[in-house]
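Subject: PCDGD protein structure
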Amino acid sequence: IIESTPPGTRFPLGSARDPDIGENALQNYELTPNPLFSLLVRESPDGTKHAELVLEKILDREKQGNHHLILTAVDGGDPIRSGTAQIKINVTDANDNPPVFTKEIYTVRLMENMPEGSLAFQVKATDNDEGTNAEIAYSFSDTAKSIRQLFTLDPRTGDVKVTGLLDYEERKYYEVSVEGKDGGGLTAHAKVHIDIIDVNDHAPTISLLPVLNPVPEDSVPSTVVAVINVRDKDSGENGEVSCKMDGNLPFRLETTSENTYKLILASALDRENLVLAKALDREEAAFHELVLRAMDGGDPARTGTARIRVTVLDANDNVPVFSQAEYTVRVPEDVPVGSTLVTVTATDADEGVNGHVKYS
């Protein structure tokens, strides 16, 4: 009997036979007491009694798939004699149960560097029916094409694999709808919330805005040479960046705001460490090569570098210097007028017009 059979349906059970006659012949049928079935006895015009099984309530194969009853035929003799027959009822499945997902909402966290082809998560639904009525096919529903390019769903197993490049910096969250349909056409739906987790896949970047380059060598300490901006596309600790400068140079970095620095001239001490001296000296170094390093807080940390060449502009800070402090010349008294007596030479460490020497 299929479980969708409506109550009131009758099932003929056939007739018992008794060779006796009169009161000793078949008089009635009896059925094992059961809440789902009752017995109806019908009598033919020739006096033959027939038993029919009547369904009283809806059957549910998922609760009970088999029923065992005993039909008893009794006569009217003294003593009463009876015969029995077993009634074995197999309840066959009807597609009266839709699929049910194990969760209404699945919450999934995926690392953005998940390799393509790897298993991201699995959805699972069950169906209390049997056979094809319990076979569930999975599919995406109400899901954008762009998401379908990133994830594929196995219609048989419910496995969802990554088939595209996940990028936290591009998109941090996805929501997909999954449908499960059984062989009889009944469906169930579930939502999947996918959070993309950031990994430290970006190195910091450094951008420079020159303010004063070349820099006059007589510039005072704290003169701003450049503004430096540091950025990292990652988030959290992966995006927290600090910046440092390599080497012992006459410059230092000063933080102005988050991820922004000023490159300024540092103060310098003379060799005796007694008084402040100028930071730059073109005559010692006409330019400085600076290496800036930005490091994020990831584990392992990633580093970005940038180079800046600072040219030192000459100032007239050097006096001419004679090759000798004193020249002694012996001149004969009869030397002709116009004769060259001595040549004096002076040099100036500055460049350009600052280094041109005139004599008087």
